[in-house]
């Protein structure tokens, strides 16, 4: 047999070595409520070695889990590498989960140690009596004032380690990270990411037909580091030696924009809520974001009106779709050559869709019989995916079976249409799509249209039970501050009528000050259905 290539493992060791050796002087900056912290990749590398060695001395064994309970900052980044590169698994805990869910996931993952920001320590201390496997808490002092008790101090712990720690050579299929899904019914489900998946995903994030992370970038992921590996951006950015900026313990729009301006950020990333919140400040001309070349936006549908408003400010929103189960990037709305000659409205239509699957991810849409639906931009089907960074099962969970097709594709639970040019357009979650008279109404399409109305800040549409049609849409609308109390249901309905068939139009509108959000900033439609279905405050259009 002819020889082929080296058996070179795709592990985070390579991601780390490349960035820190080639770009030792590049900066890593952390903002937040306290003083801004900055150091170089060289400092970062030394500290990662020390931290890993300290964990080894503490008795951390290969395969064991270490939890983190923290904001986005350089110490969290150190954990992202020090724990997986020694063969253990970093379990990022969602700081906004309900307490019983936190107890469940910490016990289910059997975390042995937890590294906690001091400002969040009170939450973990309250849970401690219910935690079955946690032996030691390590506290990152972020200026919080909670009593530390017998917990270890992160800095002292790190200082006890050896700067010349030798990382073992790992099999690329070793688990490196772990994250539980949020917003599902029942207990969260765990996803364990292998080194191979995270490394290939980093390559994927660096492709120009994806997010295109490069050494020329300054990256600010306003995505929590506890949610889907902050979209894999800390790994991609480290691999290419990009300057990295973290928002610290505040994701408030003014602080985020100040950081972007001061640090000359080129690539920002976050859920639509962040950019919706930042828009009025940008429109008031308060910040100079001339360094920004693109803002990756996903996690829930980025409304066309939002993309358009940013476009008018010279800011390019790149829409991306992903899932915790996909490490998480699945598709990115890249500007296809074929669209260059299209009129601006068509180009904007495509920017507002979820884009083409990134190389590495295969995508199809299936009808209820499991047959692939045509790429006609009309027929809805469930999106299924496969690829080297798609989960093959949930961690130690017998609910896995229902999430995969018989031939091994992952069922995303997203209802989509496929366009002839390969663009995916998400119409809804299977749970949120509104079933009216045997047909489906896309809640996402309606809310996107509503959010393009000049008097609307945010809108979510939910299906409420209806005797005749089974379900009908109810529009929950947050008006822009200057139109509070004056915007009328009739004008919104007329606005929608220009784009949708009559039977799609919501009969009822509910005007609110804010919409409930999930722990990761998405519209919490489950809560909305409970709270608003019978609301007597809804008005008829
Ligand atoms: P999570 O695992 O919490 O990141 O949630 C994944 C889900 O978020 C997907 O299955 C979609 O329903 C939704 N989602 C993510 N990105 C987008 C997007 N760009 N447009 C619409 N929905 C999205």
Task: Give a structural overview.
It is a single chain. The protein has 541 residues and is an alpha/beta fold. It folds into 3 domains: 12-270, Rossmann fold (3-Layer(aba) Sandwich); 357-429, Luciferase, Domain 3 (Luciferase, domain 3); 434-540, 2-Layer Sandwich (GMP Synthetase, Chain A, domain 3), CATH 3.30.300. Helix content is 27%, strand content 24%. It has 15 helices and 26 strands. A 9-stranded mixed β-sheet has the order 2-1-11-10-12-13-14-15-16, with helices on both faces. A 7-stranded mixed β-sheet has the order 7-6-5-3-4-8-9, with helices on both faces. The N and C termini lie far apart (74 Å). The structure holds adenosine monophosphate. Adenosine monophosphate binds next to β14, β19 and β20.
Describe the protein's topology.
Blueprint: H1 12-22, E1 27-30, E2 37-40, H2 41-58, E3 65-69, H3 74-82, E4 89-92, H4 99-109, E5 111-117, H5 121-127, E6 136-140, E7 152-153, H6 154-159, E8 175-180, E9 190-194, H7 195-206, E10 218-221, H8 233-240, E11 243-246, H9 253-262, E12 267-270, H10 272-283, E13 294-298, H11 304-312, E14 317-322, E15 329-332, H12 344-351, E16 356-357, E17 362-366, E18 380-386, E19 410-418, E20 424-429, E21 434-436, E22 439-441, H13 443-451, E23 456-466, E24 470-479, H14 489-497, E25 508-511, H15 525-532, E26 539-540
Parallel strand pairs: 1-11, 3-4, 3-5, 4-8, 5-6, 6-7, 10-11, 10-12, 12-13, 13-14, 24-25
Antiparallel strand pairs: 1-2, 8-9, 14-15, 15-16, 17-18, 18-19, 19-20, 21-22, 23-24, 25-26
Helix pairs in contact: 1-2, 1-8, 2-3, 7-8, 9-10
Bound molecules: adenosine monophosphate.
Adenosine monophosphate binds at residues 181-183, 228, 298-302, 319-324, 328, 354, 412-414, 426, 429, 520.
